[in-house]
Amino acid sequence: MARTARTMTYAIVGGVAVALVAAVGFYFSRPGEQQAQSTTDTIDTASAAAATDRIANLGETGEVEPDDMVMGSADAPVTIIEYASLTCPHCARFHEDVFPQLREAYIDSGQVRFVFREVYFDQLGLFSGALARCAGEDRYFGMIDLLLGQQGQWARQPNIRDALLEMTKLGLVAGMDEDTMQACLTDEEVLAGMTRTYQRHAERDGINSTPSFIIDGELHGNMSFEDFSRIIDAALDEQS
């Protein structure tokens, strides 16, 4: 069964942001800590901050919004919006087993425009979502794949400090440096804004579990590639 969403109230958001800021600050201030080496170029900090700081005015269910992270052609006849928590095992399995087939068959062929929206169950979910956005639009989906593919490495740690260490290693592998990550992940206003946007999306679209999918405006639960294919093909037939 998909994981049930526990929507944060705004009163909790500040506490989450402060806890994250404190944890991140503690981690980055430790002397002598050896970090994993980056295997790609460092991103531009200003671009990462701008990408992270955008909070959209909500449109109608199924519409692509200005701060959405999007894969596929803007002219695709079918739009799929996934709501996922980066700490959700069901989401990780979907992206390991189903999403590659979906991408090959429909997204890369220009038939589906795919949108990924983060759901924040907990501190680690919010932190990892911020880390992915910190990577910038060009590397966002690569960071999502890395976080979901290595979920057991960071999301199952016994405490927030160890989880931060493992996530930071992944960030370095993705091309971010420590200063960039610290700047992105210690901004309480950005973290609170991300959570408010998630809450408004979830309330408007009736999201109470992950992964959930809105396909051309209609809400669906987790499903197999065969079920996706049936729904997508029917939508394409209607538009032909």
Topology:
Blueprint: E1 3-4, H1 10-29, H2 45-52, E2 69-71, E3 78-84, H3 89-97, H4 99-107, E4 112-118, H5 123-134, H6 140-149, H7 151-154, H8 160-173, H9 178-185, H10 188-205, E5 209-210, E6 212-215, E7 218-220, H11 225-239
Parallel strand pairs: 3-4
Antiparallel strand pairs: 1-5, 2-4, 3-6, 6-7
Described by strand count, sense and barrel closure, the largest sheet is: 5 strands, mixed
Average pLDDT, to the nearest integer?
80
Integer-rounded radius of gyration? 18 Å
Number of helices: 11
Q: What structural category do the secondary elements indicate?
A: alpha+beta
Q: Write out the strand line-up for the largest beta sheet, numbering strands in chain order.
A: 2-4-3-6-7
Low-confidence segments, given as residue ranges, are 5-21, 23-56
Along the chain, the helix and strand elements come as EHHEEHHEHHHHHHEEEH
Total beta strands: 7
Shape: globular
Helical proportion? 40-55%
Give the N-to-C terminal Cα separation.
35 Å
Strand content: 5-15%
Tell me the quaternary state: single chain
Please give a structural write-up.
With 240 residues, the chain is α+β, with helices and mostly antiparallel strands. 53% of the residues lie in helices and 12% in strands. The protein is built from eleven helices and seven strands. It has helices spanning 10-29, 45-52, 89-97, 99-107, 123-134, 140-149, 151-154, 160-173, 178-185, 188-205, 225-239, and strands at residues 3-4, 69-71, 78-84, 112-118, 209-210, 212-215, 218-220. The strands form two sheets. A five-stranded mixed sheet has the order 2-4-3-6-7. Helix 1 (10-29) packs across helix 10 and helix 5 runs parallel beside helix 8. The two termini are 35 Å apart. Residues 5-21 and 23-56 have low confidence and may be disordered.
